[in-house]
Amino acid sequence: MDIISLHFFQLQTLIAEASLQPLVTSVEKKDQSIINNQDDYSNDSSEEDIILTRSNNETSEGAYPVVADRPEAINVLYDFEEKYYIGVDIPDYDFYEYTYNIDQVKNENFVGYPVKILANVASISEIIREEITTPITGKVNYSVFNITIQSKNNSKLDVVELSCDLFYRQIKELFESNQLALFCGTIIPPYDKKHLSYSFYLRVLRTTVRSYDLLNDRDYALDEIKMKVDYYSQQSTKGIRGYIKDTLIKELGIQGIEHSPDLSKAIDFMILQSLSFGKSNDGRYSNKLHSLIIGAPASGKQLLTKVARVLNPIFYEASSSAAKITAAGLVGTVVNRRGINISKPGLFPLACHGVLCIQDFHEIARRDNDLWGIFSEVMENGSVLDSTSAKTKHQAITSVHVDMNRLSQVIDKQQDSSYKDLNIPINILSRFDFIMEIPSDEERQKSIALAMINDGMTLGSSTNEFYDLDWEIRIRRMIVYLSTKFNSVKFDKPTTAHFRNQLAELIERYENDVTVKKYLTSMMTRLEISLEKFIKTIACAERSQEVKTEYIDEAFEFIKYKLEFLRNFDQSKTKANTLTKDDKIQLRRNGILETLSGKELKKQEIYDLLSDSLKLSRKMIDRDLNALEAEGKIIHNQHGKWEFPEIKGDENISI
User: Fold this and answer.
1) Has residue 54 got a pLDDT over 50?
2) Widest CA span of the chain, in angstroms?
3) Which CATH architecture best describes the domain 580-643?
């Protein structure tokens, strides 16, 4: 569902509940200038906009019937319905432009005005059967339920009763998955002894969240941000992306970037990653871009996490050594609410529509764990399943950004083999859209150390650690504007042909490489999807809804980093992939000689050792033992034992 209109039932319910015991009979008119200055809903300053309510004896053609001594809450809703919905077949939702947290609107200033709240369903009641008497329909039996919504800052707001005919199942699914949604309606004042606080009249529920909705920024409307984007894009010869990158480098104090082209390219990627949003049109895959950065200590990896924090409206960070990096910490933990097991979301669902940055990823790679399946599901499908008693599927349209050292850089005597030095399964590596290894750079380290010393510098303590600076807010506004306004892109025939030709050329180029070809076979679909995601975000960054050939070419430049990494990924295995059948047999027999070096064993002992260490069958062991004896490399002595010569550590066995 995208838009759910919840229509007239709530108004009838409210009339029935409140008309007998009115608590509020009048309300002071608010200063409309406060509303206009803060929220800029409308430039219309007519009398109709200034007056919140109409007196009981005032009505107009098509208005709701007058109810004697009705509470002010009913007046508010009559006016709200008449002004924004009466006679409108398809309401104009533009008046729900700004997104709020609950604590911002739970006051008199927002009563009767269109309000859009980004929240999740915090609680939902069982279905209640009620007999309701209204001036309009008389006595009617209704099945109703109640919900409470909650913003990300944990502020809560009760919603006026809803009919169970109005999407009870869908709203319950929102509750069970803790999914963020947009609740559109208005704030109503207290209206009876059961409702002594403000409540929410839900008119429209949107489960499709835009990037702009995450910003919670009432200082600038999208059109105003557009003017800023137009202005700042002219400040750089490389357009708005160039301005954002230059600002990040300057304000974050990134030094020595001219000595590190890899780090510079990684920052380019982080900008594109922040622009990736939502799922594909057909729902096949998450549009979010994922990155793996490998590098020695002090190579600049952590700078990219700082970049991600600035760019993304939703940002979570964790270290792999932290207690949160468990299946429960990433997916969710079970809590019981009113007798119902609910999955409290973990890091991946919490970071939905944003990014989760994980530092020291080698801590995950070095241990046996059950986390790879979780990463796979999030990176490909944008969801994650809590398989505990809560049995909840969380939405987790989340970018994954991880940085790590090679294991040999953090563990003494770790074997320096490419595969074992990362220990990340191929099916996970293939899901990263961007993989880069940043080498240690002595020249860059020197330039950074020297640049940190300047004339007239002051040593002190920062006071801005917990606050977003003005330049950070400005950059983030630009990101959400771009990803909201340019959220789709269209190919024409020439660009489609160019995309197809470029992909065919890339496949042909790497098919002759044994290592990459092996990976290409299993990741061809993911490779094509990665390219689609890159093309979409590049077009978004260029403020275009049409694909251009240069966007396609740039997408292939990014994907080459991944392929080149895979090409050099496991050289220790590459040789085995080029061996003939006889070479492989000889390698196996050399493995037997190395495993049993210096030993004198009975055949059963040989079976036990080789079946465990080399996973060889008895039939294969018998064949290899006979062949090695025939070649004079081992001896079958008179005691029925097999003697294996000792192979010293510096000796090599050739094939």
Assistant:
1) no
2) 119
3) Orthogonal Bundle (1.10)
Q: What pLDDT, on the 0 to 100 scale, is given for residue 442? A: 60
**3-state secondary structure (DSSP) of residue 202:** strand
Tell whether pTM > 0.70. yes
Dihedral, 533, 537, 543, 545 alpha carbons, nearest 10: 10
- State the DSSP string of 559-597: HHHHHHHHHTTTHHHHHHHT--HHHHHHHHHHHHHHHTT
Residue 278 has pLDDT above 50, yes or no: yes
Is residue 121 very low, low, confident or very high in pLDDT (cuts 50, 70, 90)?
Answer: very high
Question: How distant, in Å, are the alpha carbons of 406, 427, 503, 552, 557 from that of 532?
Answer: 30, 19, 11, 9, 13
Exposed/middle/buried for residue 32 (C-beta within 10 Å: 0-12, 13-18, 19+): middle
DSSP state of 359: E
Conformation bin of residue 472: beta by default, left when phi > 0, alpha when psi is -120 to 50: alpha
Which H or E run contains 385? strand 383-386
Phi/psi of residue 137, nearest 5 degrees: -115, -5
The domains of the chain are located at 3-209, 222-448+470-571, 580-643
Q: Which fold has domain 222-448+470-571?
A: Rossmann fold (3.40.50)
Q: Note whether 209 and 182 are within 8 A (CB).
A: yes
Which are the contacts of 350, defined by CB distance < 8 A and separation ≥ 6? 316
What percentage of the chain reaches a pLDDT higher than 70? 71
- In sequence order, which residues have a C-beta less than 8 Å from that of residue 100 and are 6 or more positions away? 115, 116, 117, 118, 216, 218
Beta strand 399-404 with 291-295 is: parallel
Mean per-residue pLDDT over the chain, rounded: 76
- Burial code of 536-556, b = ≥16 C-beta within 10 A, e = fewer? bbbbbbbbeeebbeebbebbb
- Residue 630, amino acid: A
Residue 40 backbone zone (phi > 0: left; psi -120 to 50: alpha; other: beta): left
Tokens of 410: 């953090």
pLDDT value, residue 465 = 52
